Amino acid sequence: MIFIPRQFFFLLLFCITAFSMQNAEQAAKRDAFKFEAVDLGVLQQGTRKNVEINGKNVSSRTIELENVFNQMVGGENFIYPQKIAAGQKFKINFTLNTAYMEGPFLHNIVLVDTSGFAWVALVQGQVENPIVFNERILDLGFYKKGVKKTWVFYAWSTENKPLKFRLAPSSQKEFKAEFSNVKLDVKDFENIKEGGTTPGVKISLSVIDLETPKNGQKSIRRIVSFICDDFPNATPELLVTGYWE
User: What kind of architecture, by CATH, is found in domain 131-244?
Assistant: First the structure.
């Protein structure tokens, strides 16, 4: 039989009780807010969407918010109440900028109180890029400074409309591009061909000369950005990867 000194027993009991109370308090804080689900459906890339989250303080205490923010890209201009009384309904409003978003998303909107405790409200939806490239990643291979490299690929609109492209100023120092209007057969995405009925653009992208990295980095990663006058808020981009020879 193991003998436990009385003072140690009471200390252990106190620690267990304190730990249980702390866990109960944390659980009560965690469940203080209830939020309505927000599903924004399908948004076109470049859209600025006003988003409203409805919530309620279901706890028995007033909660003071210090900050509200989006853990993902796109959330801006947050408006929220600083104090939320027990039982009070409230709204969080913000603008979702989809310019650099694409595909399905599930965003964590984080509410932080003055003690640093955080709650998360979820906003979901999907961003559809109105511009389709048949190539999104271009392989430069082993690149030696001054060597020329050209890729040919196609772009078209999900709305089946003609497109007018130009290379973004941020990419013109290292790349140049030529554009020509074509009709495309896009039935087989893995085998895009000219001679169909879909208005498209044939793009010839060339490397002018890549800037040598100053930190000795061997891998190459460049975002090549385009501007499409037909969808000025969209951000059509390609990724060029490679390795310095």
Answer: Sandwich (2.60)
